[in-house]
């Protein structure tokens, strides 16, 4: 397999990464090529599966995950242990499915890609443990369609694991049967929403489903289904191997959340990339590790975890990057990959670009999202051209409110509202500078198809 060609790679050398402190990345090779089965097993790979499947109950696995407080790394931060405990299971309940969400289309996010391409056996091990805990009969990896190299790596790892008896019937002589299939999506952001993902997996149109019932009650093909993010599942082997207390202590005094986080930085920095650090590490440290701002420019603003999170300011850089701390600042940790913006860049243009993406990726089921997002784009484009009307900014405030939580079927629209609302709060002057068109002149010509 080839050496990495893109700059989105782990920036920590092997000397810094140890099994006790870097459970997600300590086995990664310096050249970025995939860790195959032999090497993975040599480095204690699948040891947690052998131990757990033969000596521990499913309830015990769930209890340990709960105690470790592994919070979902897909963006919402919901406890994996709690999710697993809520999945319907028992003698009268049909065995369901475990789905790994590897759709990763959040703008500015490229963390799962690293794990999928370079260490797919860690994911498979995590999925076997999750499948055992949830009494799942089969697992799926729902992969973003464009991740071709990840598809090759995951398929190779699945074949290797099956040939070695880590997948299939009677895994490690435990009596537990479980297998995993790779399913590549068609490259749509909405397929990352867990119920839209399930619809897509079933071969239906990728619209989110009404909840309840939640997937843990009735998911894929009407069976109890657990959906977890790649990074969340990759945490399970370490937790089972070292215990809940070890996981909790990884973050030390930095955060009440346990474990490490695969953080990243992109944008106008000297060295974009990924770092595995204790959860709660402040953004200031990440920025420093990324070599600071490029060309000596000044930081203007930053998104903490992808395009669907809210802008924060330089004064927020020392806040812990964890779910609750970033929530208290009015944003979201999201995926934990920072997008850094310098003083020369236009926030208005950045927000317009993001809203174009969100408008294009709307599934079209709810009116505020289907109609509100293209309208938002049109107003932002007018302001960008300097042809905005005085009422446009008020209208953007209203549209952002209409896209907010509780008004649509899924979190796509509230996610799209976050960068808009926070940009209007912190950088309103940029929007106001786009207002030159006298009141009364409208720009309500139909938007060309495909523009938004
Ligand atoms: C529009 C939209 C896109 C999403 N995309 C992803 C994604 O690509 N990967 C992911 O893990 N979660 C994504 N999510 C969150 C999932 O719905 C779900 O919460 C997550 O997969 C649960 O895993 P976790 O508990 O391990 O975080 C998305 C949510 C929304 C609303
Ligand atoms: S919020 Fe948008 S993406 Fe989500 S269901 Fe409604 S229309 Fe579809």
From TrEMBL:
SMART domains: NADH_4Fe-4S
Cofactor: FMN; [4Fe-4S] cluster
UniProt GO MF annotations: 4 iron, 4 sulfur cluster binding; FMN binding; metal ion binding; NAD binding; NADH dehydrogenase (ubiquinone) activity; quinone binding
EC number, as in UniProt: 7.1.1.-
Catalytic reaction list: a quinone + NADH + 5 H(+)(in) = a quinol + NAD(+) + 4 H(+)(out)
Keyword Iron-sulfur: yes
Boundaries of every NADH-ubiquinone oxidoreductase 51kDa subunit iron-sulphur binding domain copy: 348-393
Top EC class, one word: translocase
Keyword NAD: yes
Domain of life of the organism encoding this protein: Bacteria
Pfam families membership: Complex1_51K, NADH_4Fe-4S, SLBB
InterPro entries: NADH-UbQ_OxRdtase_51kDa_CS (IPR001949), NADH-UbQ_OxRdtase_suF (IPR011537), Nuo51_FMN-bd (IPR011538), Nuo51_FMN-bd_sf (IPR037225), Nuop51_4Fe4S-bd (IPR019575), Nuop51_4Fe4S-bd_sf (IPR037207), Soluble_ligand-bd (IPR019554)
Keywords: 4Fe-4S, Flavoprotein, FMN, Iron, Iron-sulfur, Metal-binding, NAD, Quinone, Translocase
Family: Belongs to the complex I 51 kDa subunit family.
Known function: NDH-1 shuttles electrons from NADH, via FMN and iron-sulfur (Fe-S) centers, to quinones in the respiratory chain.
Classification via NCBIfam families: nuoF_fam (TIGR01959), PRK13596.1 (NF010120)
Protein name: NADH-quinone oxidoreductase subunit F
Protein source organism: Halomonas ventosae
